[in-house]
Amino acid sequence: MPELPEVEALRDFLTAHAVGRRVERALPVAISVLKTYDPPLEALAGRTVTAVGRYGKFLDLDADGLHLVVHLARAGWLRWYDTLPAGPPRPGKGPLALRVALADGAGFDLTEAGTRKSLAAYLVHDPALVPGVARLGPDPLADGFGRQELAALLAGERRQIKGALRDQSLIAGIGNAYSDEILHVARMSPFKPVDRLTDEEITTLYEAVRTTLTDAVERSRGLAAGSLKAEKKTGMRVHGRTGEPCPVCGDTVREVSFADSSLQYCATCQTGGKVLADRRMSKLLK
Fold this sequence. Notes:
The protein is an alpha+beta fold. It has helices at 4-17, 131-134, 147-154, 161-166, 176-185, 199-220, 228-235, 267-270, 279-285; strands spanning 23-28, 49-55, 58-63, 66-71, 76-81, 96-102, 107-112, 120-124, 253-257, 262-266. The strands form three sheets. A four-stranded antiparallel beta sheet has the order 1-6-7-5, with no helix packed on it. The chain has a four-stranded antiparallel beta sheet with strand order 2-3-4-8, with helices on one face. Strand 2 and strand 3 (58-63) form a beta hairpin. The chain starts with a helix and ends with a helix.
């Protein structure tokens, strides 16, 4: 799933490639992709892209005050073309969800792999009208987001730290992958209860959030949209690296599986050597 660093890199890419260009048309290809109907998508035609923004994992294309807001979900992506393929896109079972054509022949496709279609696009006059944007917590890379702000957000929380970091209404933009990375940097168990964090651990967690996300953004900056997925994968320390050696201590990276996701961690670095129970395997053995 694209998370804050990848969406921020896409924002940079579209700012450099789309701002100042006029929209020729926007065509929904998948029936489920467009979540709004007023204003109609045809209203984008003839407008100039004036800015590109980001709200957590949401990408915002501002075309003369009309906002195309996109959430790429788990398997969505943006594919840029200096020259769009000839002919209109055909609806079907392929990955193409929506195409934006610019007047000079360039443009981009929004695509989504797999059969579970969750990619969402909204055309609104104000991004705050998108429910997912309206409920977002603060951006962890915002200038005003400091250690005290994180401590205030975590105050009163009773859940595990992994779940808290992924809650978009608490902190915007962190998902499954970067929560694994942050907790590895912080040397903290994903199952540690938030209400047991000491002041020192909150400081450590804050620094891990900022450095992990900032480093990921910097690694992605300037890359073409098509290269961002590969950069994300190569930059991971533990996420998606089950069975590989931990880059810090050399212990084997382990995994805990759930119904529709999994987390990765290093027992030596994060849990004092304790191997966490794999919930899926535990059920199978019962």
